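Need residues for this backbone.
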């Protein structure tokens, strides 16, 4: 750009220094443009006249004020009011909420007006055997909660089950502190069992087995001995004859033991499975002639040394009167002397399992079979 052209551009005027704030020298803003072409015309809205509720309820539908058709078409439809449930429906819903069956809580005897008092029974006219809870639950209408309480305390109800559980817990604690109390707590009931023996090693497992199966049972033992078999039976046939002889002895000597009382006999015998392989086994026999019941079960066998059996045979006299059924010397006597233990402990010393546990396991099977036969006999009556 030449110097001449530079001289042609006018210089910007220098603003004059004005005292005060600089904003005072700014020009005021111009008016903003208005883009609204015209003002909209308001639409008239029809307002329905309001009437007092008392007057509306008395006027027929034809005389009520109506809205213009154009406005009524734009309004949403009004839903009809929900129907009011009947008292029966309300009662049914309340029973469902309270988890009470519909059959519970219904009044057995309705309370009627004085005009029907001739055919109405009042709570005072009920028999004296009916408790107060039964009167309230069966007579008062809508007393389902009282009927629920009555059912809760009845046999099989929730309160009854809670009481039984608490009782079982207390019984378990007592028997843990004193095991001999178990016999006392579980005695009773409708089952009476007689054991043809006075030895505790036979009576206690029979008692425990029947109390486990039946819940409660009374088991007692009476002394009984076989006079027609050997002291140590050999073979199943000899043991069965000895057990039947013990049962017959109890029935003939005890007047309180009739044919309706079940008797259990436990008879130990020797069994030769193969040559020189001997086992000591207990045979359990239960008889109840009135029902035609006879059950036979065997315990697990405990091995017996062949030398012990040979020693028992050597001790048996040649002229022994019961030599056909067994030996005169019992295996517990020989095994106890050989193992240096008591005669009732030779099973545990030899095999690690007491004889009582072997008899208990077989007695539980015996009691279970007997219970099934009683159920079949009761169903046939």
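Answer:
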């Amino acid at each position: 750009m030449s110097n001449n052209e530079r001289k042609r551009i006018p210089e910007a005027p220098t603003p004059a220094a004005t005292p005060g704030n600089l904003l005072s020298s700014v020009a005021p803003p111009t008016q903003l443009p208005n883009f609204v072409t015209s003002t909209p015309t308001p639409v008239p809205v029809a307002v329905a006249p309001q009437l007092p509720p008392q007057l509306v309820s008395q006027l027929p539908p034809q005389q009520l004020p109506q809205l213009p058709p154009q406005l009524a078409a734009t309004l949403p439809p009004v839903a009809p009011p929900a129907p009011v449930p009947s008292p029966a429906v309300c009662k049914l819903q309340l029973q469902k909420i309270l988890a009470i069956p519909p059959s519970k809580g219904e009044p057995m005897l309705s309370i009627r007006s004085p005009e029907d008092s001739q055919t109405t029974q009042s709570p005072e006219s009920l028999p004296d055997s009916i408790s107060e809870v039964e009167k309230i639950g069966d007579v008062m209408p809508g007393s389902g909660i009282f009927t629920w309480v009555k059912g809760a305390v009845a046999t099989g109800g929730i309160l009854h089950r809670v009481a039984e559980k608490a009782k079982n817990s207390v019984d378990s604690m007592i028997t843990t502190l004193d095991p001999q109390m178990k016999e006392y707590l579980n005695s009773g009931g409708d089952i009476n069992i007689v054991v043809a023996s006075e030895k505790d090693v036979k009576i206690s497992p029979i008692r425990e087995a029947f109390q486990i199966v039946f819940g409660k049972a009374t088991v007692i033992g009476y002394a009984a001995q076989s006079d027609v078999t050997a002291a140590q039976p050999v073979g199943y046939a000899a043991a069965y004859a000895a057990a039947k002889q013990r049962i017959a002895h109890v029935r003939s000597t005890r007047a309180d033991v009739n044919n309706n009382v079940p008797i259990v006999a436990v008879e130990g015998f020797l069994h030769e499975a193969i040559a020189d392989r001997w086992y000591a086994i207990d045979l359990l026999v239960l008889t109840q002639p009135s029902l035609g019941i006879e059950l036979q079960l065997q315990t697990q066998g405990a091995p017996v040394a062949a030398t012990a059996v040979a020693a028992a045979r050597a001790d048996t006299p040649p002229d022994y009167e019961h030599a056909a059924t067994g030996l005169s010397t019992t295996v517990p006597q020989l095994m106890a002397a050989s193992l240096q233990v008591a005669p009732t402990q030779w099973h545990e010393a030899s095999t690690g399992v007491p004889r009582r546990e072997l008899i208990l396991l077989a007695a539980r099977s015996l009691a279970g079979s007997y219970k099934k036969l009683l159920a079949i006999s009761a169903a046939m009556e």
